[in-house]
Amino acid sequence: MCTAQSKKIGQKLNEGKTKQIFELVDQPGLVLVQSKDQITAGNAVRKDQMEGKAAIANKTTSCVFKLLQESGIKTAFVKQHSDTAFIAAHCEMIPIEWVCRRVATGSFLKRNPGVKEGYRFSPLKMEMFFKDDANNDPQWSEEQLLEAKFCLAGLTIGQCEVDIMNRSTVAIFEILEKAWATQNCTLVDMKIEFGVNVKTQEIVLADVIDNDSWRLWPAGDRSQQKDKQVYRDLKEVTPEAMQVVKRNFEWVSERVKLLLESQASGRVVVLMGSTSDMAHCEKIKKACSSYGVPCVLRVTSAHKGPDETLRIKAEYEGDGVPTVFVAVAGRSNGLGPVMSGNTAYPVINCPPLTPDWGAQDVWSSLRMPSGLGCSTILSPDAAAQFAAQIFGLTDHLVWCKLRASMLNTWVSLKLADKKLQACSL
Questions:
Q1: Which of 199, 213, 346, 387 is the most exposed place for a label (fewest CB within 10 A)?
Q2: What range(s) does the PurE domain occupy (predicted)?
């Protein structure tokens, strides 16, 4: 990790209640985000120094952004720079806090009398708040945001951009919710901010996500809360009370590292009837790697060497690693049915169809004898995705990549439509 002295720090660009932003003279387009030891509540009506908070917050936010980036979410985060600072892309910040809620609590109950604490939102409840300390960050509607016509780094915030931020907030919340569930913690709600990258004009997740940003209840129990709400709820700020708050923040910063660790292992084993199918199989392997799923390629023929096919099957059943078999066989597909009839593991047919006999050959994969449960997926990418979805049931890191991929597909379509509309005007 770099030391603070190894970067030439320029002028201070901005300062908030808990961090400072500095330009990096030798790296145009990047900034240094320096955390502070200050903790605040109620728009800094209450504020105190908490020794070590900067390092705790920086450690937490760095782990969270690494998880999101590895999943495929676009963020401003580049890398952790020191114990108390990280490097990020320079962004012009959109002055909106996006709040996503799974469980009703806090200010939502005050603004919505009659709703009981603990009410669960499915789908998630989305809210927006305009960043204006003087007016206590008023809640805004989508119409107010559109009418504001913010223009940042040359990008005007219109309907397309609002939709992207809305959809991204949901995906980000769901990824972190899934990750925290592996630690038996309920992500109750969360606030995030977006910025416009000054170089690319892309909307990216920016600012920080640390223990000030969410409510986190171990075992879903509010009495065990580990977030900043403990500080907000203090009737009197004493050294002893601040030690309790600090221990909670440290607890989160230690647990958040575990979110980057896989909770399960698995692999895809691709069985091909001939090396002539290698190109088709390589596509499956490449797609598997994009979801973080290991993939092994083997050659065997259920017609010409059924004993060897079953020996290979037994080899991968015998080590206890969860496995999905993908059968790649053209013409008459014997691999898929033989594997499905002899293993309890999932089997996917992915035949490499040819233009001449493909329409006839595919029936050997589609029409199975009774008692066989293998599926048939023609696209190599889709076969890998389906295998990843199976592993995603038990491995949150695979699930997170799938969830981010869904978001990125949606965003690319949204931007393509915006570009097309602009060309048509």
A1: 199
A2: 266-413
